[in-house]
């Protein structure tokens, strides 16, 4: 049904922004909407290849983006305790990224994996 080169198809997309083709003239599956009019199978597949550049479902992309934002906010809070606020604001993204990359090397963990604040003047354990 989906490999008939002479049939007309629709490009369909669901709520997770995942794409597929669907035979024109058939009722769309629940949760899917047509994107544009009917066209050849090849045209539909070419369109999908152009627009669907990130295969991850929308919910996964958003969760990862939100996790990155939360991590960045938490890192900024930690950094704000280590670095003057004005200095932190003046940092470029690259400087901030480098500082964050090196930050974990400066953290000491107890046996129960809790971060331990180092005592000034002592070496890391």
From TrEMBL:
Domain (MbtH-like): residue spans on this chain: 2-50
Signal peptide boundaries: none
Record protein name field: Uncharacterized protein YbdZ (MbtH family)
Coiled coil: none
UniProt-listed GO biological process terms: siderophore biosynthetic process
Cellular component aspect of the GO annotation: cytosol
